[in-house]
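Ligand: flavin-adenine dinucleotide. Inputs:
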Amino acid sequence: MAADAPASNDPEIREAVARLCASFPGEYWRALDRENRYPSEFVAALTEAGFLSVLIPEEYGGAGLPLSAAAAILEEIQRAGCNGAACHAQMYTMGTLLRHGSEEQKRRYLPDIAAGRLRLQAFGVTEPTSGTDTASLKTTARREGDAYVVRGQKIWTSRAKHSDLMLLLARTTPLDQVAKRTDGLSVFLVDMREAVGRGLTIRPIRTMMNHATTEVFFDDLRVPAENLIGEEGRGFRYILSGMNAERILIAAECVGDAKWFIEKATSYAKERVVFGRPIGQNQGVQFPIAKAYAHMRAAELMVREACRLYEAAEPCGAEANMAKMLAADASFEAANMCLQTHGGFGFAEEYDIERKFRETRLYQVAPISTNLILSYLAEHVLGLPRSY
Ligand SMILES: Cc1cc2nc3c(=O)[nH]c(=O)nc-3n(C[C@H](O)[C@H](O)[C@H](O)COP(=O)(O)OP(=O)(O)OC[C@H]3O[C@@H](n4cnc5c(N)ncnc54)[C@H](O)[C@@H]3O)c2cc1C
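Predicted complex:
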């Protein structure tokens, strides 16, 4: 890591991130938003400072820090008004390779990912027809000699245009030939630099926020068999094993967003004078801010608990899911409150509130929607009957 991003000390990491983010103020993000442009300069600065490789073990060139360090980095990015969605996946997508890849694959890719020479931040799971029901995905990978031939389509493959590699989930054994629906899926590392124009097409999708998301088409794309991660047919398990980390980190981002909204609203409520007194003197204005603060703090504690369990290698599925749900709810509640506190000014671009409002809304749906979290808790924690 660069000198500016010191070891695993939480306050020091937070200060270093805040210093870096200060060079990327609201005007920077507003201009990108207007032009629907990727924050290349911001991502390059984070890469250079070593923040995106903190989870990669030292033996592969990373900092080897625990998940809570990554959570602190992403939280601070959001708290500063920046948007980590442009690059958060570079931090954790490599986890599947790290846990399930061969030693040869790890040596081949991880040091370059750690150094920022190789970008692995595209994750191809969701498809247009299967949606949340991952096991019914239609993209197939058929073995032909020393390669797999991939055919199908993914949607919402974020950052595919700004990534060299994609982690792809595809079906290698037809659904009617497997004992369990989640069997027969495999994970591949697709080198998109070689693939674009040779069976891989990437089309950007414009969304309500500037998110660099795409749809991706596979038209008999040949992927070398050596790019299969782990064992053929066990890919669903490999992807699942990375999801707790993803949920915890996105939850940390939501906590950062909530803090940004609460800080903005609080200072505005102290300054804005209407009817001869600060609007923040009215309890009708104070209470929503105080409530958003209480909900943010509760979510923050759940993020910490999920991190603690994850770092102790204990089961943390319930806590990771609850952290994601509570934090996404807290950030959107804070966003709504902040907009309301600002009255008409909240809708003006220059306050950044409407932009952050649009950005944080995503986390009610992605990477997993609130309903699916509730049904996980109902079934797996409370023992209620399975609903789907
Ligand atoms: C901007 C953006 C970026 C994304 N980035 C990525 C990415 O990089 N890689 C990737 O693979 N995916 C990505 N996604 C996809 C995201 O994970 C999915 O959109 C999300 O999981 C929901 O799937 P869906 O859109 O197909 O909704 P659907 O599965 O069609 O669900 C629609 C609605 O119905 C509800 N629903 C569905 N089934 C049930 C049920 N049984 N019970 C109760 N409610 C139900 C859902 O909660 C949801 O609200 C991204 C999405 C967006 C919008």
